[in-house]
Amino acid sequence: MVQTVTKTAVKVKNKNAKMYKKRGDSSLWWMYLPSLLIVCLFIVFPFIDGIRISFTNWNGFSQTYSYIGFDQYKRMFSDPDTWLVVKNTLLYGIGSTILQNIVGLGYALLLNQNLKIRSLTRTIIYLPVIISPLIMGYIWYFFFAYNGGALNDLFVLFGSEPVNALGNPAVNPYIIVFVNTFQFVGIAMIIYLAGLQSISKEYYEAANIDGANSWQKFKAITIPLLMPSITINLVLNIIGGLKLFDVIVALTNGGPGNASQSMSTFMYNLYFSRQDAGYAATQGVLMALIILVISMAALLYFKRKEVEA
Amino acid sequence: MKARTSRKTWILTLAALLITAFHLIPFYILLTTAIKRTGDFSSKWSFPDYVNIENFTIAWEQANLGNALVNSIIITSFAAIVLILFGSLAAYALARRTTKLNKYIYILFVGVMVIPPLTALVPLYRMVVNFGLMNTHLVAVLNNVAAFLPLTIFLYAGFIRSTIPKELEEAAKIDGANTLSIFFKIIFPLLKPITATVLIISSVYIWNDYQFAIFFLQDSSVQTLTVVLASFFGQNGSQLNLVAAAALMASLPMVIVFLFLQRFFIEGLAAGSVKG
User: Fold this and answer.
1) C-alpha to C-alpha distance for A34 and B146, rounded to whole angstroms
2) CATH no. for residue A281?
3) Same domain as B107, residue B25
4) Nearest to residue B68, comparing CAs of B255, B219, B215?
5) Whether residue B30 is found in the same domain as residue B131
6) Nearest to B115 among A187, A198, A288 (CB)
7) How many domains does chain A have?
8) For the whole model, what pTM was predicted?
9) Tens digits of residue pLDDT in B2-11
10) Residues B86 and B126 reside in one and the same domain
11) How far is Cα A3 from Cα A11, in angstroms, rounded to an integer?
12) How far apart are the C-alpha atoms of A258 and A272, rounded to whole Å?
């Protein structure tokens, strides 16, 4: 009895499998067709078309343009602004990543303790994550602004001259890193907290029996077992930091001059303010390459570490 | 021993308090700026003994925040629905049918994640203009869906592979149900935890989107909160009180949702990160 039922089931299954084959349905391609169309139309094709445009002198609106070979690339590599902007982009990407992870891990370790104030602190630290980076940038603008900013109110209160921190190219890239970190450190914190809570207490108990001190436990147990969380955080933060746009628009608008411009804001200006679409596309190709190389390198490096750990 | 533990707890609590206070500073400054009169040049740190409601009414009207709020709600909710529907369908096919074609398609979806959306800007802008999609809700919806689909598919596919048993679908297939009804009646309800994660992460991101909104929503009738706020700031750079009032009102809807659904926000992120 049981056997016949199984046999019929297998038969029906085979029949279904055949039907799928006949209809070319084994891939269920129609299920991902809508997604594929949207992603191709809005990301893949424009990206490929962008590579084509980087070989032209298109100004962004006229109907005619000509192909000029690698001229835009030559221009890009000899343009001092390119290196300034790449340097800033790397500072935003790598600087915020380092800061977010150190501070985020510190917060997570603190909040992993059994403190009464824990959930309030967690809520407040996480709050900026859900606020638009543009608005967060404006909020910090109220703090750093030269005229009537909260920071200068303090300086004046203690009798020193007000400072124009946002207008000072030696300082403002670091303010941007700080604001970006402040906004997204909550994400790193939550991911580390989840990671910490998944580490079994037994490891620490065993280490206690062996007489290990806190630092030894942190180095030998916590860090290796947190590797998956570290990987996710680093990759998320570095991609986010390299693409930084809104915060810069709100705080400095890339200025003074191009001093705090990132590749995103620089590209935006080239296209919309300077009608230099061909060159903007060339900068876009460079940006994609930089993000690809850095995020791949980080991913591969830390994936390997995870396996070792 | 006990005394030492409680002293340690004290020090850690104090540290947590200081950190909390530090993270509240910008919000405190925002609040004092938003409720002071434009002519009030007192320190940003001092709390006024009055509340100038006018800042809020003027900012609400001048920035047209009501209209922007409706636009933000329309774009975010439609984008989230399309994202979850298309994303889960795609992930199901890709996770369950590992044909050669599907493997390549999956790699394509995941690979797209490293393309910074802004690098496609120049040609995308031209395409949107040619299609006559400028200044429509549709382009904002589709753009946000495109930007978030790869991650959505990645999260759903990981969840389906690791937690949904194949036997379920096979049993339903024997009963003669077709693929689509199997998906919607059996699979989709089981995806609830990861759907919550996708819904929360994507809604916050889409709600706060500025990069794309500024390019494609240039007409004030379709502009979202972030775009409206940016232009309001441009016009009233010298009247920070009004800008602060507008910023406060624009952030409030998400903050309220967050405070009520906090558990889901934080658990959703943690679950997504562990599964991903």
Assistant:
1) 11
2) 1.10.3720.10
3) no
4) B219
5) no
6) A288
7) 1
8) 0.86
9) 566 788 889 9
10) yes
11) 12
12) 15
